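Posting here for the record, re: NAP.
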Amino acid sequence: MANDLNGATVIILGGSSGIGLATAQAAQAAGAKVVITGRDAARLAAARKVLSNEARAEQFDAAHERPAREFFESFTGIDHIFSTVGTLVLDPKLAPSRTELRPAMGVRFWAALYAAKYGAPKMNTRGSLVFMSGTAARRPLAGAAVASASCGAVESFARSLVLDLAPIRVNVIQPGFVDTPLFDGFFGDQRDAILKAAGEKLPVKRVGRPDEIADAVLFLMKNGYVNGTVLTIDGGGLLV
Ligand SMILES: NC(=O)c1ccc[n+]([C@@H]2O[C@H](COP(=O)([O-])OP(=O)(O)OC[C@H]3O[C@@H](n4cnc5c(N)ncnc54)[C@H](OP(=O)(O)O)[C@@H]3O)[C@@H](O)[C@H]2O)c1
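Prediction output follows.
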C-alpha cells in the first residue's frame, strides 16, 4: 500500500513558485503539513496566500550551508523533502564568466547535498528525498550546457545516496518544458509565443503544467518501493 501523505511533514525547498508551489498545493490537498522555502520574501508571501493557513514559509538560500543547517535544526520527524532549487544560466559557447556560470552548476547540487546532509538525519525511515533534474540531462539544450551538467550531477548523487541513506528513499524528477515563472525573466514578452512553439514540437502538442509535475512528485513520495529512480515527465519530448 502506498504511504499516505495525510499528516505527513513535507518540506519543499524552492516552494514559492512554479513546480515547487504546485507540489505544495498538491501535498496540502493530500493532507500533508507543508513547509515551503525560498529566498525572496515577497514571493513567499504571495505563495502563502494560495496555500492554507497551516503552511509554513521560511526565507533562506538553500544552496548555502549555514542557513540550510540552521533551517533543518528545528525539525524532527520529517517525512519528505523535495528540492526544486536550481538556476538556469544561458551559456552560449560558455561565454559568461566563471562567476556567472558557477550558480548554474552549483546551486542545484549544493541545495540537494545540504538537504541530504542536514535533512535526512531528521527524517522518518519511511521518508524520501526528491531532487529536481530536467530532460536537458539527457537531451542537449543549446546554450544550457552547464545547467544540464548540474541535472546530471544530482541524478548521479541521488543514486549513490540510495545506498548511503537507506532505508530513506531518494528519487529524481526529470521534467521537460513546463510553463512556470522561470521563463519570465529569460523571454520577457516573447515567453508565451516561445513556450507555444516549444509545445507544438512535442507529441502532446503543448508544454507541461506545474500540477502535472507535482502529481509525479507525490507519486515518488508515496510509493515506498520507488527508489533510485529518475522519473521523466516530458510529454514524450525525449522521443522527438
Ligand atoms: N520550468 C521548466 O520547464 C523546467 C524544466 C526542467 C527542470 N526545471 C527545474 O525545476 C526547478 C523549478 O523550476 P520552476 O520552473 O518551478 O521555476 P520557478 O517558478 O522560478 O521556481 C523556482 C523556485 O525555487 C526557488 N529558489 C531558487 N533558487 C533558490 C535557492 N538558492 N534557495 C531557495 N529557493 C530557491 C525560487 O524562489 P526564490 O527565487 O525566491 O528563491 C522559487 O520558489 C528548477 O530547478 C528548474 O531548473 C524546470
